[in-house]
Design brief:
It is a single chain. With 115 residues, this protein is an all-alpha fold. It has 2 domains: 36 residues; 48 residues. It is built from 3 helices and no strands. α2 crosses α3.
């Protein structure tokens, strides 16, 4: 009788160990998934970095858009701004003016010292 009781107790102990190991393994799998899974911590960090980068890019584009809108407004309302753009970008001149283009001087080639 003692032997059957011991066997029954061994089975219960073994069953508890297996359940403990299974729960531990399950917790480990959940932890790893939370860390590196599709919606895990590392993915969230990557998404946050990407969001910050895109927000910065959006801010720069909005600033550029505002500048272009101001330039358009000036061209539509101020004739001197339109003239300035035409003269600067298209090298246009008024009748009677002479256009002089000054090119930057290129440095003379270095002479080889033949001594």
């Amino acid at each position: 009788m003692r032997r059957s009781r011991s066997t029954h107790q061994d089975v219960r102990t073994r069953r508890r160990q297996l359940i403990t190991y299974a729960l531990g393994f399950g917790a480990f799998v959940l932890f790893v998934n939370a860390l590196v899974g599709d919606n895990g911590y590392l993915a969230a960090m990557r998404t946050n970095r990407e969001h910050a980068s895109l927000a910065d890019k959006l801010q720069k584009m909005q600033l550029e858009n505002d500048q272009l809108q101001e330039q358009i407004r000036r061209m539509q309302e101020d004739p001197s701004a339109l003239e300035e753009a035409a003269r600067g970008g298209l090298n246009m001149i008024k009748p009677g003016e002479t256009l002089i283009i000054i090119k930057p001087a290129t440095p003379p080639p270095a002479k080889a010292d033949g001594k």
